[in-house]
Design a protein that fits this description.
about 475 residues, alpha/beta, Udp-n-acetylmuramoylalanyl-d-glutamate--2,6- Diaminopimelate Ligase, Chain: A, domain 1, UDP-N-acetylmuramoyl-L-alanine:D-glutamate ligase, Protein-Tyrosine Phosphatase, Chain A, 3 domains, nine-stranded mixed beta sheet, 17 helices, Mur_ligase_C_dom_sf, cell division, cytoplasm, nucleotide-binding
């Protein structure tokens, strides 16, 4: 494998001092996932990375990026010593971006950043050498890591950019220097740090400040803040492309048909109609996929291949993944469907998830309760600011609620929703996720479709884990069922 960083080019990029020669084929910030040959970056987060340098070197790290000689190490070890490790990592990211030939895509948005990045990974990896951010590497250290890992010969690079507070996106966008920048959507999220949704839109639109000359902006239509996005895009971009369901959109969604585990979409590109499939249910996924088609074409990918390959993507765990949990090792019909959307939540993504649940088809006559049910288990939405109680309570009036049989709520904020629900739909309310997780055997029945949704901090993933543990290992595989 070719060297990603040598002691020479890494020292030049960072202004640091290498204690001895090295060649690193990768980059890591965590000894648990370190691969031999990585440059270990001793960042300070919850723990000081310098405490793990000796262990990293023992595990085969090519060198370590440090601000001092750590305990258990010496000048004879391969170290790159810099004044500040995070600043040096940022410099490596800038140098990695500068030497790359790749068409760079930057993605941000209140909802769907990671899913859109992964869709882009699925379609572009079949049309060239692709480099994309891992997991949700979208902050002040995640973006530099993505760029520092960027191979010189990559054809495409996808960088995810997130934020929690004003002023975070613009410097990361300038570091990434994208040829194409996309905003998935703007929704009430992180309202604790912003006065209103207009402020969120302006922060998201700051991604266009990093566009390369001749760069292209891809924005969603049909939002109350679309004019804010469009004004910022027109100021910074050579071309602005709109996607959505509005007349005049360059990429327009005409129809989306939801099945249990698929969305079939009919869209129009200019005057040209086309069909595509997303391997999960959700109109919002179809809209994001339409934006992916726009972005892929903007970086020169073949549109026909892109449209076909959208169907290769599936949501990962915690982001809308659907699975069947078999309750009986003998009778394959004794099972319920679990939709794991427990990674994140805000009012927009909550509404989208409820729409998906409302479109599902429970199975009757297979459980303790004759009728299969659509059940939502909803955890707190965090960082919504002073109107959080009203935003939680408002979920009760979402049209999809008419199709749901029961709603269980987790967390102090979700108490507002629980109290707003009709008595017939009101399930259990618990202060914490472990409390409700302990009730999983009572909540689930064969034939049900169960959605679990909430902000990561609400820990409703513990409920997902408890529901999965109701399954009988090997039951589905033994009979070739779902």
């Amino acid at each position: 494998m070719a060297a990603l960083w040598t002691h020479v080019n890494a020292a030049t990029a960072t202004g640091g001092r290498a204690t001895c020669p090295f060649e690193a084929t990768g980059l890591s910030i965590d000894t648990r996932s370190l691969v031999p040959g990585d440059l270990f970056v001793a960042l300070k987060d919850q723990r000081d990375g310098h405490d793990f340098v000796a262990d990293a070197l023992r595990k085969g790290a090519a060198a370590a990026l440090v601000s001092r000689i750590p305990e258990g190490c010496s000048e004879s070890d391969p170290l790159l010593i810099v004044p500040d490790v995070l600043d040096a990592l940022t410099a490596l990211g800038a140098a990695g971006r500068a030497r790359a030939k790749a068409k760079v895509i930057a993605v941000t948005g209140s909802v769907g950043k990671t899913s859109t990045k992964e869709m882009l990974r699925a379609v572009l990896a079949r049309q060239g050498k692709l480099h994309a951010a891992e997991a949700s590497f979208n902050n002040h250290w995640g973006v530099p890591i993505t760029l520092a890992r960027l191979p010189e010969d990559a054809d495409f690079a996808v960088v995810e950019i997130g934020m929690n507070h004003p002023g975070e996106i613009a410097p990361l966008a300038r570091l990434a220097r994208p040829h194409v920048a996309m905003i998935t959507t703007v929704a009430p999220a992180h309202l604790e740090a912003f006065e209103n949704i207009d402020g969120i839109a302006r922060e998201k639109a700051a991604i266009f400040e990093g566009l390369e000359p001749g760069g292209i902006a891809v924005i969603p239509s049909g939002l109350s803040v679309t004019p804010i996005l469009e004004a910022a895009a027109d100021k910074a971009a050579a071309r602005t492309i709109r996607f959505g369901a509005e007349a005049g959109d360059e990429y327009r969604l005409a129809e989306a048909t939801l099945a249990d585990d698929t969305t079939i979409a009919r869209a129009v590109r200019g005057d040209e109609p086309f069909l595509y499939k997303v391997r999960t249910a959700g109109r919002h996924f179809a809209v994001n996929a339409l934006g992916v088609v726009a972005v892929a074409e903007a970086v020169g990918a073949d549109p026909a291949v892109t449209v076909c390959d959208i169907g290769l993507w599936q949501p990962p765990a915690g982001r809308g993944q659907r699975e069947r949990i078999h309750l009986d090792i003998v009778d394959a019909e004794k099972a319920f469907d679990l939709i794991d959307d427990a990674f994140n939540a805000n009012p927009a993504s909550m509404a989208a998830a409820l729409d998906v649940l409302a479109a599902t088809n429970p199975r009757d006559g297979v459980g303790r309760i004759h009728a299969g049910r659509r059940i939502a288990i909803l955890g707190d939405m965090l960082e919504l600011g002073p109107t959080e109680a009203e935003l939680h309570a408002a979920i009760a009036s979402h049209p999809a609620m008419a199709q749901l049989h029961l709603v269980h709520c987790v967390g102090p904020r979700m108490r507002a929703l629980w109290e707003s629900l009709p008595a017939a739909k009101r399930g259990e309310w618990r202060e914490t996720a472990p409390e409700l997780a302990g009730r999983s055997h009572v909540i689930a029945d064969a034939g049900d479709v169960i959605l679990v949704k909430g902000s990561k901090g609400s820990k409703v993933s513990l409920v997902v884990d408890a529901l999965r543990k109701l399954g009988q290992p090997g039951a589905g595989e033994a009979r070739g069922t779902d």
